[in-house]
Design brief:
- The chain contains six helices and no strands.
- The protein is mainly alpha-helical and 127 residues long.
- The chain has one domain.
- Helix 2 packs across helix 4, helix 2 (22-33) packs parallel to helix 5 (78-86) and helix 5 packs across helix 6 (96-116).
- It is globular and about 45 Å long.
- 22% of the residues are buried.
Length: 127
């Protein structure tokens, strides 16, 4: 994506947003979209509504989740805390392994929601 054509304040804001550590981006996303949801279908419905007009948050979150899944933090229970506290999601397996399985489910959900978004939805063009 060529940010050079954007006005300086907007370009800087986009660069800062895209440069956030994956755990921070994942934390913000999970807190915003899963914290109050009681079920995965409920969370998905909210993401699908948003995707009708804009999938940028979805794309950023997917990129962050994929990074966390591929290279989880070495700190014990960091991923488990991310899911338990930021997503406010109770898991039968409260370990990091259980939390990573949840993140894989969320990442797959995001892939599906992004794929189903209308062409008119605003999106990042990662080129």
């Amino acid at each position: 994506m060529d940010l050079s054509r954007l006005p300086e304040p907007l370009r800087r804001a986009v660069e800062e947003r895209l440069a956030r550590p994956p755990m921070e981006t994942a934390s913000r996303f999970l807190g915003a979209h899963f914290n109050d949801a009681e079920t995965l279908p409920e969370a998905r419905a909210g993401l699908e509504r948003l995707a009708q007009t804009n999938i940028r948050v979805h794309q950023e979150a997917l990129r962050a989740l994929e990074a966390v899944i591929a290279d989880p933090p070495s700190e014990p229970n960091a991923v488990a805390r991310l899911v338990a506290w930021d997503a406010n999601w109770g898991l039968d397996d409260e370990s990091d392994a259980g939390a990573l399985a949840f993140l894989r489910t969320v990442a797959q959900m995001l892939r599906e929601v992004i794929a189903q978004a209308p062409p008119s939805a605003q999106r990042w063009r990662w080129e």
